[in-house]
Amino acid sequence: MPDEREVTVLGTTAMKTAFEELGPAFECETGYRLKLTFGPSLQLEKRLAEGESADVAIVTHAGAQDLIARGRGRAGSLADLARSFIGVCVAKGAPRPDLSSAEAFKAAMLRAKSIALSKPVGGGASGAHMAAVFDRLGIAAAIANKAIYGAGGPSGLVGLIVERGEAEIGIQQMAELMAVPGIDVVGPLPDGVQSATQFTAFVPSAARELAAARALIDFLRKPTAKAVIKAKGLDPN
After folding, report:
1. Minimal CA–CA distance to 55: which of 3, 13, 2, 10?
2. CB 74 within 8 Å of CB 163
3. Helix (H, G, I), strand (E, B) or coil at 121
4. Per-residue pLDDT tens digits for 180-202
5. pTM above 0.85, yes or no
6. What letter would DSSP give residue 221?
7. CA–CA distance from 93 to each of 170, 180, 182, 219 (Å)?
8. How many other CB atoms are found less than 10 A from the CB of residue 221?
9. DSSP β-bridge partners for residue 187
């Protein structure tokens, strides 16, 4: 077992609950200690682009590719981990919106008094996607009048806004909704308005613990790790 050393990880908030279980298992198995920071993937990509260091980063696939192309990541280190789908939540016991079709979803959004979302700019991947969906459905103006945007990161989850009674409906990555026990997750968005975000790990160019970084990425792709990732609301690759 190697000497205990700190491995810095910048990861999308969608992976937080998986790491709560997988992190201790990795530390026990390898002797490394993880220093975990979670946030919206687009914010993490910006921080990495500006030179923030980490041993492992988990962001969107497109973001990881771009960072590697710009010299902020090590070529050949990219590893797809899981796809994430967007879902809808309500408060415990509240009426559930119809998600059977894109038209039913549109009608539910128009009826809702308030909707919690990720920020469309500088927030999570779901925020930018939903802004485009509302525009395509022709309801962007109506949504703007009742949208409540989460602060991002683990403390700014959309589910927490709904749990506190500050919004009637919440929309965010399924794994992030499942991280809040005090709400009801209605289900994923219907076809036509759904989007799958591919989350990918890579080794930033400024990584100090290269062996540990590769060990962590390999660990996250083991069948046992994939089972945990799936249980936390993601679709492992």
Report:
1. 10
2. no
3. coil
4. 999 999 999 999 999 999 999 99
5. yes
6. T
7. 14, 15, 10, 38
8. 17
9. 88
For 111, the enclosing helix (H) or strand (E) is: helix 102-111
Q: Which residues of the chain have pLDDT under 70?
A: 1-4
CB-count exposure of residue 23 (10 Å: 0-12, 13-18, 19+) = middle
From the list 53, 28, 22, the residue with the least C-alpha distance to 217 is 22
Walk me through the domains of the chain, giving residue ranges and CATH numbers: 6-82+197-236 (3.40.190.10), 85-188 (3.40.190.10)
Which residue, 129, 149, 137, is CA-closest to 109?
137
**How far out from the chain centre does Cα 125 lie?**
7
Strand partners, 94: none
Residue 93's region, left for phi above 0, alpha for psi from -120 to 50, else beta, is left
Q: Is the dihedral of CA 204, 205, 206, 208 positive or negative?
A: positive
| Cα 157 to Cα 12, 110, 144, 176, 230, distances in angstroms | 12, 22, 19, 7, 20
Question: CA 142, CA 186: separation in Å to the nearest integer?
Answer: 22
The DSSP letter of residue 1 is: -
